[in-house]
Amino acid sequence: METEAARAGEWMVPLDGYATVSEEDTLFEAVTLLKESGNRARFDGDRILLVRGTGGGIVGKIDFRDILMGIEPRYGQSNGPGESAVNKSYVRSAITIYNSREHPLEDLCRKAAEMKVGDILNAIGEIDRIEEDRTIEEAIRRLIGGGLQSLLVTRGDSVVGILRLSSIFDGFCAMIKACRC
Question: What's the pTM?
Fold first, then answer.
């Protein structure tokens, strides 16, 4: 007997479980909210902020990694197909440059405090989202292939939830246990 495939909308976390910021908020405000929301997160280890655009709709999400990458934009640059800017030669050169500064961390902190969330936000792309009726198998391919921790779940043009890699893993573990019984 064949079972129906699990769908993204069935395993997503609803939007009301997440704090939101505006594209116009500063990274200082976002970091403060991210720390506060993480301390009272309903979901283990969840440290995601949803970003609202000027029209009030969700235009993206940010997490710790996005903020750290945003203060050093070259981290996310590509050197060609399949190659990230974060490679050994880049890391060595960055270490040399930052070690030559008198107070590199303080410089980055000052820069970050004044940046806007919109400055580091990547627009929601095809890889960052999944329709709620798509299969979990497709979600896994997108998450792993894109090196992502979560996907925005959509219904038409609206974001309705977040599908987390950790939720998929938990569901998959439960399925494995059920197969053994």
Answer: 0.73
Q: Which two tokens stand for residue 152?
A: 């925005």
**CATH number of the domain that residue 138 is part of:** 3.10.580.10
- Residues 151 and 161 sit within 8 Å (Cβ to Cβ): no
Per-residue DSSP letter, 102? S
d(CA 67, CA 37): 15
**Does the residue 27 lie in any domain?**
yes
Alpha carbon distances (Å) from 136 to 3, 48, 76, 85, 165: 13, 21, 27, 30, 10
Q: How far is residue 121 from each of residues 40, 58, 60, 65, 70, measured CA to CA in Å?
A: 24, 12, 7, 12, 8
Write the pLDDT tens digit of every residue in 65-102. 788 777 765 555 544 444 444 555 655 665 555 555 55
pLDDT at 130: 95
Helices and strands in the chain: count of H runs, count of E runs? 8, 9
